[in-house]
Amino acid sequence: MTQGALNGLTVLDLSHYLAGPTVAMVLGDLGAEVIRVDPPGGPRWQHPSNAILQRGKKSIVLDLEQPDDRREAQELAARADILIESFRPGRARRFGLDGSTTCARNPRLIHLSLPGFAPDDPRADLPAWEGVVTAAAGLYLYPGCSPMDYVGDRSAEPIYNAIPQASAMGVMVGLHSVAAALYARERSGRGQHIDTSLYEAAFELIGASVMRSPSRPTKSGPNPAKAIIDSPQLGHYRGSDGEWLELCLFQDKHLEWFGREFLPDEWVADGMADAERMLTDPALRERARERFTELFASKPAREWERLINDASGASAAICQSTQDWLRHDEDARANQAVIELTDPHLGATAQAGYPIKLSETPLSVQGPRHVLDADRDAVLARLSEPERQPQEGPEPELRRALEGIRVLDTSQVLAGPTTSRILAEYGAEVVKVHSFEDRQLGMHTYTNSGKRSVMLNIKTPGGRTVFDRLATGIDVFVQNFSRGVAERIGMGLDHLRSLSPGVVYASISAFGYDGYRGGWRGREQLGQAITGMQVRFSGPGNEPHMGPFAYCDYSTGNFAAFGVIIALYHRLRTGRPQSVHASLSATGSFLQLPFLLDYEGATHDEPAGPDAKGNGPVDRLYQAADRWLYLAARPEQASAVAEALGAGGTDPGVNDTALSERLAARINGHTVAEVAHALRHLDVAVHALEDLDALMDADYPIKKGLVITRSHPGIGDVTVAGPSARLTSTPVRPTEPVGPPGSDTRAVLTDLGLGADADDLIGAGAVRDGLPAGSEFIGLFR
Q1: Max Cα-Cα span within the chain
Q2: Is 245 helix (H, G, I), strand (E, B) or coil?
Q3: 470 by DSSP, 3-state: which?
Q4: 301: which residues sit within 8 A by CB, 6+ positions away?
C-alpha cells in the first residue's frame, strides 16, 4: 500500500464545527494519524456530516474543564506534530492549550488556531457562527449580483447562502498554512503557531472582486466585459427533457466552433457565430437568444452537454442538483470528488472525496469515523512515549517558508494564477509566462501579484529556447491546459522532468482528467453547474443561477497551492517529486461539504434560493431599522432571544415561521446596535451585513493588511485584498506589485543569459517587451 505524504505525523484535533475538523480530516487522508478529542456527549456540532469530518480519526473523550483530562490533553499536545483548535480567542489559554504554551513545551509543534475572529479583532468575543462571519466579511449579496456587478439591487432583500463560505476558505488557508509550516519545519527543525481566523480567510474569496484604482478611474459608458456576460453564447438553456444546460462559449473561437457544428447556415450568415457582432449588436443578441432557445429545446440537455464538448470542443455543462452529483454522476466517482464509505452510524454513504490528487502519494481514507471514545486506551498509551524534542535544521534562520523555491507559471485566468500567487506569498520566486494570444488579463494585478511577467510565443524557435531556459532547474511548474495540450506543445511532464528532474508538476482542470468530461474545457460557471451550486443558488425548480464570486476558481487555486507545498514537503523528506492535480469540480464538492453526504433516509432540505433567509428563527437574516443584520444563537436559546427582544416567549404552539415573523417585527423597529445591546447578556451574536466596498475602507482590514493599496509600475495605485495566512516564524507578507504583462521580459532574459539577444528575440516575434501599444486590460477594474 502506498504511504501518504504525511505518514508518520500525528495530528491532535481539538476543533469543532466545520473548518478545523475538515483540515484535520484532509491531513488524515494524506496519511497522518489524527486523534480527535471530543467533550462528553460527542462533537458540539451534532450533524450528519460528521460522517465526513471525523472519518479515519481515532476518538477519545476528554472534558477540558476537569484538571486530569486537561492534563492529558496537554500531554498529547507535547507529543503531536500538529494541533488544531477553534476555540474563541482566550479560551485555549484557560486550558493551557494556547499556541504560546504548546509551542514552548513542544518546539516542533505546528499549532493551528482557527477562530471566527482573530484575538486582536474587536469582535474576538463574538460567537462566530458561520452566518455572522459571512455577514462581517460582506459575503451576503443582493439580487442582480453578477461577476461584473457585485453590488446588485440594494433596495431588495439580501440573499442567504447555505454554503459555508467563511469556513470553507478557513479550511483552505488553514491547509496551506500548515503545509508551509511543515515544509519550514523540515528546513529549520522548528514548528510555529498559525493563527488564521475565518474572517481573515474570507478575503481569499473576496479576491479581486473589489479591486479598484484611484489613479485609473472606471471608464464611463458600456462595460464590454458585462456585454460578454450578457451575450446569448453564455447562459442557461432548457433541453427537451426539462433540464438546464449552461452554455459557456467564452472565447471567440468557441462560438465559431459551435456555429460551424450546430447552427444552420442562415443563422451563421446572420452573424450568430460572429463574436464581435454578437457583442456590439443588441438586436442580433436578442434574435440569437430566441433561436438558441429553440435549438436547445430540440434535444435533452445531457445529450447537448456531450455533443457540444465532444463534437466542437466548446464548453457546456449540465446544471444538476447536489444530490444528482452525489448519486448519479459517473465523473464524480471517476475523479474521486465523491467516494463511498460505510459509516458506523449511517451505514453506506456517498460523501465528499478528495480536493486534490497526488501522483505518488494519493489521498486515501483511513476508514470510517470511530465510535465515540473507542480509542481511549490506545491514545492514552501514547503518554508513555517521550515528548517531542527540538531538532536542528539546515536553515535555522529561515525567514519565509518557500524561500529559494522557483516556480514557472503558464496558467491563465484565475485558478492557476491564484496557485502561484499564494506560493509567492510564502516566499517562492515566480515567473509568469503570458502568451501573445492571452486576452484574459482582467485581475492581473491581483492574481499575478509578486510575479515577474514575461510575454512569450512558444510557437517560435526563439520562444521555445526561452521557455526551456526558464524551465531549467525550477521546483514547480503550473499549467491549466486542457488534457493533452501541454504534451502537444512541449510543456508536458516528461519534457519538464528532462529539464528539471525534481519538478513538482501542478495541473488544474475544470472536471478532472478522468471520466467522460476529462478532456473538456471549462470555467467557473461550469464547475458550479455540475456540482449543484447553481441549483442551490437559484432554488429547486428555478432557472439555475451562477454565484457572483469565483468560488471554484479561487478555491481550486488555494487547494492546488496546498497540494504543491505538500509535494515539496514530500520531496524534501524523500527526494521524490510528484504531480499535483486540482479541479473545479472536486473543489465544488468541498465547498458544499456539509451537504455532500447521502445515505439511506438522508434529507436534503437545507435552505436554498433567493427567498431563503437562514436556518431557523435565531440563525438568519433580519432587516433592522438602519440596515440588515445576521442573528445567530443556538436553537435552545430561541425563547430567551424572543423575550429579550420583546417578542414574547415560545411555546409548543409557536412554530419557526411564527417566531421568525415576531422577531422580524421587533427587530425592524430597532437599529443593529439596539438589537445587539438588548441581547448583550446572552451568548448570541448580532452583526450588520457589511458591504464589500466599505470593507476596503474599514480600519481593521487595512490595519491587518487584508486590504492593501500599492503602486504598480506602469499601472498606478491599485487596491486589492491582501494575504490572510498568519504564521509566526515564517510570516506571509504582501508580495511586490506586478507591472503590466510582459514588463519584466528584458530583465528575465538578462538573468537567463539572453540579454544580448533581447532585441533579436523581440524582432523575431519570440518575446514581447510588454503589451502592444494601445492594448487595454479588459475588465481590470469594475
Answers
A1: 85
A2: strand
A3: helix
A4: 237, 238, 239, 241, 243, 244, 245, 318, 319
Q: In this predicted model, which residue has the larger pLDDT, 239 or 771?
A: 239
Q: What is the CA radius of gyration of the chain?
A: 26
Tell me whether strands 579-583 and 338-343 are parallel, antiparallel or unpaired. unpaired
| Domains defined for the chain, CATH in brackets | 614-690 (3.30.1540.10)
Q: Which three three-digit cell numbers place residue 705?
A: 493588511
Residue with C-alpha cell 494564477? Answer: 417
State the DSSP code for 512: -
Query: Which of 106-115, 491-500, 522-531, 642-651 is predicted least confidently?
Result: 642-651
Indicate the SS3 state at residue 746: helix
Q: Is 191 exposed, middle or buried (0-12, 13-18, 19+ CB in 10 A)?
A: buried
Query: Contact, 224 vs 278, CB < 8 A?
Result: no
Q: Which of 602, 571, 408 lies closest to 502 in space, CA to CA? A: 571
Specify the pLDDT at position 693: 82
* pLDDT(262) > 60: yes
Q: Please give the Cα distance from 607 to 164 (Å, whole number).
A: 12
Give the pLDDT score at 42: 92
* pTM score over 0.90: yes
> Using H for helix, E for strand and C for coil, what is the string for 258-275?
HHHHHCCHHHHHCCCCCH
Contact 88, 20 (CB under 8 A): no
187 vs 572: CA distance, rounded Å: 8
- The answer to whether 449 touches 735, Cβ cutoff 8 Å, is yes
DSSP 8-state secondary structure symbol assigned to residue 763: H
pLDDT, one tens digit per residue, over 49-79 is: 999 999 999 999 999 999 999 999 999 999 9
Question: How far, in Å, CA of 651 to CA of 219, rounded?
Answer: 58
| DSSP H helices in 310-437 | 322-327, 330-334, 376-381, 415-425
Cell numbers placing 323: 444530490
